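Minimal example, chain plus beta-D-glucopyranuronic acid.
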Amino acid sequence: MAASWLALLLLGIAVPVAPAAAEDGYDLWLRYAPVHESRLAGYRAHATELVVPADTATARATRDELARGLRGLLGQAPATAARARRDGAVVVGTPASSPQLAALKLDLSGLGEEGYLVRSVRIDGRPATVVVANSDVGALYGAFHFLRLIQTAQPLAALDIREAPRTQVRVLNHWDNLDRYVERGYAGESIWDWHRLPDWKDPRYTDYARANASIGINGTVLNNVNTSAQALTPAYLEKTAALAEVFRPFGIKVYLSARFSAPIEIGGLETADPLDPAVRRWWKAKAEEIYRTIPDFGGFLVKANSEGQPGPQDYGRSHADGANMLAEALAPHGGIVMWRAFVYSHEEPDDRAKQAYNEFVPFDGQFHDRVLVQVKNGAIDFQPREPFHPLFGAMPKTPLMMEFQITKEYLGFATHLAYKGTLYEEVLRADTQVRGPGSTVARVIDGTLEAGEPGRSPLTGMAGVANIGVDRNWSGSHFDQANWFAFGRLAWDPYLEAQAIAEEWVKMTFTTDPAFVGPVVAMMMGSREAVVDYMTPLGLHHLMGRGHHYGPGPWVAGGPRADWTSVYYHRADDKGIGFDRSVNGSDAVAQYAPPVAAQFGDIDAVPEEFLLWFHHVPWDHRMASGRTLWDELVLRYGRGVDYVKGMRSTWDGLAGHVDPERHAQVAAFLAIQEKEAQWWRDASIAYFQTFSKRPLPAGQAAPPHSLEYYESLQFPFAPGDGK
Ligand code: BDP
């Protein structure tokens, strides 16, 4: 051994001083790696003693997390004590649990059940840090914040932090089937081991809860929106109850997707008509049964009358009739209904983008006050870029909940590095203008825009379609963990900046070394735009492979419905390309507030990133750059590929800063991404050139294969396809 090392040394090959611990990503952003030695003494002085006086399950989880975190970060866990006695104690809890905290008489008003203070104070004349809340869960959130300060190399002196979530329902939506298949999942099977539940509670469930609580997520919908009614049978409710028990100390409620026709399938009724008294009785009894099993059950998520799912319209009833029936069953127990607005009917509309608005706006004000309408960020479907959904701002009397997709169904699955924090931020900051400038989507979601609307339900929320599976790194790739993290942080506070969130995540997940953080954050910040460029530049959308959505498929045509094809969306012909949603076309622009409609509807005023979303544009149209549309399109595709090349070289240069395991996987995935970005570019250009009939701009390489070749590629086993 020694001899071979010597040989390596003689050859000039670097020999590691000590082998780094294997890093597989399992620890996520709760990695608690040792802080830089220059900061160690300072931090230790602020964490000499750990006081978490309450003895509830939540307080125990809080104490365990702080002990684990501080041990990892500072090399030693502080002594635990019942009350603070030394300089530098950390005291965590509620005033009710601690006379020392009560004596501080801190102002906890306005923090609600989930907010907290993190303050530098003096206790009995000695310096201390306190994390104080109105509830144990608030204190747990505060404890994670305290740990995050150390993880991100922030000072611990003179702390005066006051935080409360701006939305109430902050949930993950798992599109997980009961057979563990995950629809649009790219991280392996479902983590819910239904078959072995309720008796075997995988320790992974606890780590899942810790990770979610650390970013403020307080609920999880366990099963797919395309669900089987089986999820509501007694056997599965018992399994769900076992998960609820694991999650409860972490402030996380369980929810289930409910199949609208369950009264027929598992109830033996002949109808699921929401106005039928027997159906209503069935749901009431089902709710009672659920709450007997799970007393703090969160409620139902429902996909109805969408993509073939059953719903109230099957009986000539409305979305409001359906949602309200379920809300009436759940309300006595404190549950809610999240009713999805992702609908489109069997009859193809002139423009699918218009359908949700048309179906929901007439019912504004008619929903039960325990109903939230859950709206995807854009009107089509989680595309790399979409303008904000026109429903935001259009239903002032109804709480609208944001639905973001964390899993990257349309952004390269788990192998493409695409940070979605910038996508979320762009949507949340979009200005609906419904009540004048500054009527942002974030203000619709947090309820502040319409707070004065009489009789409006005060519920608020945000949902993220999870990217979690049994892969060791949870999300299918190391960088996809950032999207889960960013979703949680933005659900807590939709006004946070994507860049600040990326910085936090990089520091917590890899290292606080600025030589690493700077370039990696920069790389992340442009990564989603790169995907837009190499897949669907300038407002193009829905051009991916049929069914599985893997790779380019701009030629996809025919089949069961036009609005499942690409040609429906890009409408390329020898004159130009793009979907005319202006007043001359489908007039979808009219669903926006007048100033927005005027901007989007005007080919000269619309932001270029939405040009082909709203207009059918001649190939020779002059762009802001002075180039023709065709030339610009080709350059954008290439720009996306170049960005990925840049990410590869940045990452290669950072090898010394990252453990070899994670470095190697990210590097390999970036190589896949480059190959696939090139494929998207080449296939798209080969296809669209058959319409534009124009040469490529100077210096742009012709696609290496024929269009027939790209069209012939088949991927029957691509992951995540809907079943
Ligand atoms: C689409 C997915 C499909 C989902 C559907 C939904 O392709 O698998 O079932 O959305 O959100 O994005 O219901």
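The domain at 169-505 is CATH 3.20.20.80 (TIM Barrel). The radius of gyration is 27 Å.
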